Design the sequence.
């Protein structure tokens, strides 16, 4: 491999940044992690906004250049170490399937769950409007869950037989679906099984352990969290 890039990663525990955090550990190259505490609105600090005007995590600084958006970071990291086969090459149609999954996670599932967790992002200050936004979010999520179940089919991983960046993303969105703020979610036994397989990976247990030191978050009870 050519000279390894210097990687600085900005994250918050159990946020969407968990997906690239997992892949950074899977990749195995050195990187520096930087907690951006969303509870303290550190993402809106002058210093962070100078780095990332979007005021969001994740962000990955590659040498001197910032890359944002979970899907873009996952793609970059997967391509960084092709021998790990974390994302198929452009000669393989499955690469586009990986993008299909990742884009569905970022543009639909994440957005629906955000509308439940933080309806004011869409509804503003009006409580009754926000109640409608959240209720619609639950309905939208239910439809998306059914799509995920159908598309997973009998596959071991999102792309078939090989773990990929798409699975890391599906893992995080699955964790969010287990949050008590979501009143109901349809049966998602295939997604559940996939998330549990992701959880069994040593890199994933390592990252979750690291993140839980910053902010304790719960995992599904039936997972063996030894
Ligand atoms: N489209 C972006 C969304 C990033 C995003 O919304 N990140 C959340 C955490 S999951 C965040 O930083 N929120 C802070 C805020 O909106 O104030 C991506 O996929 O990376």
Sequence:
């Amino acid at each position: 491999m050519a000279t390894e890039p210097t990687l600085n990663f900005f994250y918050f525990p159990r946020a969407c940044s968990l997906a690239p955090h997992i892949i950074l550990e899977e990749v195995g190259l050195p990187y520096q992690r930087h907690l951006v505490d969303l509870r303290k609105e550190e993402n809106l600090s002058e210093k962070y906004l100078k780095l990332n005007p979007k005021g969001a995590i994740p962000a990955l600084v590659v040498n001197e250049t910032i890359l944002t958006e979970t899907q873009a970071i996952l793609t970059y990291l997967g391509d960084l170490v092709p021998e790990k086969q974390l994302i198929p090459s452009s000669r393989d149609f499955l690469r586009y399937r990986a993008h299909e999954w990742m884009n569905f996670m970022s543009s639909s599932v994440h957005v629906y769950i955000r509308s439940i967790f933080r309806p004011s992002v869409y509804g503003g200050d009006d409580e009754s409007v926000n109640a409608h936004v959240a209720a619609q979010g639950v309905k939208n999520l239910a439809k998306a869950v059914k799509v995920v179940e159908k598309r997973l089919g009998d596959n071991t991983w999102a792309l078939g037989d090989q773990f990929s960046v798409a699975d890391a993303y599906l893992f995080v969105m699955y964790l969010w679906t287990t949050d008590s703020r979501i009143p109901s979610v349809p049966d998602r036994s295939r997604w559940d099984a996939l998330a549990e397989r992701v959880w069994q990976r040593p890199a994933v247990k390592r990252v979750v352990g690291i993140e839980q030191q910053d902010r304790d978050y719960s995992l599904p009870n039936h997972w063996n969290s030894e």
Observations:
- Residues 127-152 form the longest helix (26 residues).
